[in-house]
């Protein structure tokens, strides 16, 4: 038995030398008593490959630009009294903060929500991000790498220059897609661009990468600029199947109090809260 374990360890060290694995990974495999666990774990890490699309095949000329272009989903395709709360975490100059009280409220009252998280925000809040990803109340989705409007020709939204080519569109989506996978083992199914602006070619690319571009039909906090009263009144305009756009990265905004005031009223009206993947989208 000892000889078998020694041989396994030698094999693992050889693999590590060839593949760039570190000592802790080898020790972890040895601690489990066989190479089977180690190899299967390593295989799962590499399971998410880059989507097999060629950015060069897409046109660099588009005809639509905005939040509601062809292909962008804005509602749940249902007549049931359900609402999908979505919270963006933008990162960079658009806010690296974390509204812990808001998330604690959702957790305490068991309110599910979908979190669109930007790569920069994750990098500055990694421990918090891992905790959120492990909480089944929260569905983690992709909010881009550099929080850019998604354009194949460099269009601008709210003073922010967008991606300027199909290749840049691909990297804005895929770099964070892969990063989230590496941290969580889960691949996002939905994407929301920085500023929520797209052109129709970028949306086509998102779809070909296996995601859906998602925006909203309830502007919950206008990028964190609404007062708590405005957030509350906006959410109370929700209809069956609404998707609300809010932010979890600006704790000094009116978002938290507005959400906390609106949710009990919506529950009283008979609404339930769901994840985006609980229903087809339209």
UniProtKB/TrEMBL annotation:
GO terms for biological process: carbohydrate metabolic process. Coiled coil: none annotated. The keyword Signal applies. It holds the Pfam family Polysacc_deac_1. Transmembrane segments: none annotated. The keyword Mitochondrion does not apply. One of its GO terms (molecular function) is hydrolase activity, acting on carbon-nitrogen (but not peptide) bonds. It comes from the Bacteria. Residues 1-24 form the signal peptide. SUPFAM superfamilies: Glycoside hydrolase/deacetylase. InterPro entries: Glyco_hydro/deAcase_b/a-brl, NODB_dom, Polysacc_deacetylase_ArnD. Keywords: Signal. Residues 81-274 form the NodB homology domain. This is Polysaccharide deacetylase. It comes from Alkalibacillus haloalkaliphilus.
């Amino acid at each position: 038995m000892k000889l078998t374990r020694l041989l396994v360890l030698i094999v693992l060290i050889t693999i590590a030398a060839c593949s760039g694995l570190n000592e802790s990974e080898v020790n972890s495999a040895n601690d489990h008593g066989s190479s089977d666990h180690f190899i299967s774990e390593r295989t799962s890490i590499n399971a998410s490959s880059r989507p097999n699309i060629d950015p060069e095949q897409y046109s660099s000329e588009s005809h639509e630009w905005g939040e509601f272009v062809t292909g962008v989903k804005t509602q749940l395709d249902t007549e049931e009294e359900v609402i999908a709360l979505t919270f963006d975490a933008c990162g960079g100059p658009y806010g690296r903060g974390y509204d812990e009280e808001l998330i604690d409220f959702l957790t305490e009252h068991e309110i599910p929500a979908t979190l669109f998280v930007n790569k920069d925000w994750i990098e500055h809040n990694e421990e918090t991000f891992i905790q959120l990803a492990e909480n089944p109340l929260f569905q983690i989705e992709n909010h881009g790498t550099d929080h850019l409007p998604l354009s194949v020709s460099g269009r601008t939204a709210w003073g922010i220059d967008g991606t300027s080519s199909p290749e840049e569109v691909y990297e804005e989506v895929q770099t964070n897609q892969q990063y989230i996978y590496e941290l969580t083992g889960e691949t996002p199914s939905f994407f929301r661009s920085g500023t929520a602006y797209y052109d129709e070619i970028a949306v086509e690319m998102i779809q070909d990468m296996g995601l859906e571009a998602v925006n909203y039909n309830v502007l919950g906090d206008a990028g964190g600029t609404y007062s708590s009263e405005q957030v509350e009144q906006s959410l109370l305009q929700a209809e069956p199947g609404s998707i609300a756009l809010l932010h979890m990265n600006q704790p000094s905004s009116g978002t938290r109090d507005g959400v906390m005031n609106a949710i009990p009223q919506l529950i009283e009206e008979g609404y339930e809260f769901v994840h985006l993947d609980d229903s087809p989208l339209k």
